[in-house]
Amino acid sequence: MSADSRDRSTVQGLFPSSDHFPLGRAYGCVAATPEPASSVRPFGLTLAVKLEAGTVVDPAELGYDDDAQVGLIRHGADMIPLSRHTTGQTNTITQGGDGQTTNVDSDTDQRED
Amino acid sequence: MSAARTVLVLTHRFDPTADTVVDELNHRGVQLFRCDAAEFPERLHVSAELVDSEWTGPMHTPNRGLELEDITGIYYRRPTAFVFHPGLSDNERRWAATQARLGFGGLLASLDRWLNHPHSIGYAEYKPVQLRQAAKSGLLVPRTLLTSNPEAARAFVADVGQAVCKPFGAVGICDDTGFRQVFATIVTADQCCDPNIARTMHLFQQWVPKDHEVRLTVIDDHFFAARIDTTSDAGHLDWRSDYESLSYTAIGTPDIVRSRVVALLDALGLRFAALDFVVDPDGQWWFLECNPNGQWAWIEHETGLPIAGAFADALEGQSKP
After folding, report:
1. What is the ipTM for the molecules in this complex?
2. Which of B23, B31, B112, B181 has the most CB atoms around it within 10 Å of its CB?
């Protein structure tokens, strides 16, 4: 099953009430496929810039503590709590195994890309 | 099995902001059930019966569970999309997804004690909504134009003198130059002659002279204000674009701002929000935006403000909604 087909589970509309829960998408499925800019790229999007800095996380290095119910991340030979590694700034990036950016955490739930 | 007084945390497994609250709740010995909507329906099971006007029944995974009637607080962070049995066809999955949203999502939506209710988050995420409500609440709001009309944009920018173009939501794009994100960007009137302003909706806002910025985190009646200073031009324009240049100081919130923020959050139906302000050289606080599901853990990390503790209080039902 593709992530794309999972995301298109509701009929798109201006105010889709059934889309209120959950607000999120399938995990790790954000704008992962590069494509060239079109000739009619919206003006606002032409102002986009590369991030100066971000906390890049490789999903292969992540784990989960079922007892404490917190995420873990590899630190050398150990797995340590994820919250000790990153402070959840608004531009935390999850880097996919294929080298593409797959998730950027932000202040905003991302629903409409 | 009843797990009395349980906090429900809805998010995916790799969410350091949620982890900070979970750590605090674990430290307090609070019963806690963390799950993701993606676990429904294959790993997360729920049954509920309407008894005396309340939905009652169990929700559980293979590892733990709770009784709906025992929930003291629900922290809505970043639950991700439902994942269905791989044997379903696409059409079957779409049907199942609608049932899951309206049934499972509807059951949760009917419960009280949210921080924040997802419908309120969805409503408050609309910048036009929050800007209007902020102005109605008495907060200072920069002159703002929403338009898909290049001529209207050009005229507005020429009139206010200095303006920024900013996105309605923090969605980036992956193109052939890599991943890019849109931040608030200074624009000129000449730039706004671009016909591709007509391709979608745009937000133009008067540039407010800036002494510093403030991120104000509010949880029920707890206010945590962090002054943000920057040493770079990019950070001065939009602090999200250059974290390395930032420094943070815990400060107080002026009473007049506090009362108006209370009015704003009441209007938006929010118990929690991370709000951004510009403070001008005269000390006036200008409202920029309200993030109803915003990030805050790094503010606690940088300032020592006890934000996770306030979340835990709210989720345990110990603070005043």
Report:
1. 0.86
2. B181
